[in-house]
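Task: sequence in, structure out. Protein: Tetratricopeptide repeat protein.
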Amino acid sequence: MNTSDLIEKYIQKKATAEELEIIKQLMDRDSEFKSEVSFHLEIRKAIEKEERERLKQRLQSLEQNKQNKRFLSLWWKIAAVFVVGAGLLWLFNQPVNYEKIYVENFEIYPNIVAPTVRDFNGSEESIAKAFNYYDSRNYREAAKAFGALQTEDAHFYYAMSLMGDHQIEKAIEIMKSFDLQSSEKYKNQINWYLALGYLKIRDKDKSIIYLKKVIKNDQTRASDAQKIMLKLK
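Result:
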């Protein structure tokens, strides 16, 4: 076996015990051979060092990528929380749009008392005339006609006519009168329209008072009242 093969096996740590003895003897008596072995050992060390550096850099790169992914994941989570939080903050800090809520919920109460007639005869002429105006949506004339009458029905539809004619504060005054406040027939309707009336004039606190009464006593409008309450808070 030539010296080059011996050196190669020595460098790769594959030499047998017998070959190691030969190499030792050669290094003791042949300085050139010894220098050759040292040279190859240095090269081997340099290669191993280079490989270790590349491996280290590779591991660092993988770790950095891992950290970047963690950071990005965390960043997106934080960003998502921020966006949701900002959205909720924006939502809850929006001013109450009283007019929009009012328009969405106000509907004039239907005529459930007297059918519309064209000829006025007998003692019910005045109430029939008032309801004719009401059913034709001439709320100003209806208000005048109902306002001249003294029945419970007339008082209620007088208030409704005023609301239809956008005379909200006057309608509230009529609905809060003793006759209508003590009315069992129109109690639930009065609470609902008072809540809407106060909403229209932007009196949130009083609107909420009557919305709570609606929720408690009027099953047909309780859900709508709850939705309005949420928008007001």
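The domain at 98-232 is CATH 1.25.40.10 (Serine Threonine Protein Phosphatase 5, Tetratricopeptide repeat).
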